[in-house]
Design a protein that fits this description.
The protein is about 85% helix and about 0% strand. It contains 4 helices and no strands. It has helices at about 1-20, 35-55, 60-85, 90-134. α1 runs antiparallel to α2 (about 35-55), α2 (about 35-55) packs antiparallel against α3 and α3 runs antiparallel to α4 (about 90-134). The radius of gyration is 19 Å and the shape is elongated.
């Protein structure tokens, strides 16, 4: 949770600083809602996948993709709500939302890759241990 918060803060502050200082015409007052939204989604996804792992012993790719689909759907709803309610700098908000989505998609994919690599290594050690026992 701490690592998620740190990464989210670094990305949010960096991109916010770039928008505010370099492209002030594209900065919008609701910008902080985007990093906060993705932070909440990352926390929820981590909590859910951890719960599935504790219950089933492992996280399947299908479960991961289901969570990704839910996150995408909620992001679309968030974007739609912003467009319907706030109606301020829609293009900048949409572009920033997509940018964050792709950044976090890359980070989550890399995290899943590391998780799977660790899991495969663990299974290989267990197989070697079982074969050594016999």
């Amino acid at each position: 949770m701490g690592l998620i918060t740190f990464i989210n803060a670094v990305i949010g502050i960096s991109l916010g600083g770039l928008l505010y200082n370099i492209w002030p015409e594209h900065y919008f007052t609701w910008y902080p809602s985007i990093p906060f939204f993705y932070w909440l989604m990352a926390i929820a996804m981590t909590f859910f996948l951890d719960r599935v792992k504790r219950r089933n012993g492992d996280v399947t790719v299908t479960m991961y993709m289901l969570v990704r689909f839910c996150k995408f759907t909620i992001a679309c709803v968030f974007l739609w709500m912003y467009a319907a309610l706030v109606k301020e700098n829609l293009r900048a908000f949409g572009f920033t939302m997509m940018l964050f989505y792709f950044i976090y998609l890359g980070l989550e994919t890399y995290t899943l890759y590391l998780f799977e690599k660790k899991r495969m290594k663990r299974e290989r050690r267990e197989k070697e241990y079982e074969s050594d026992k016999k």
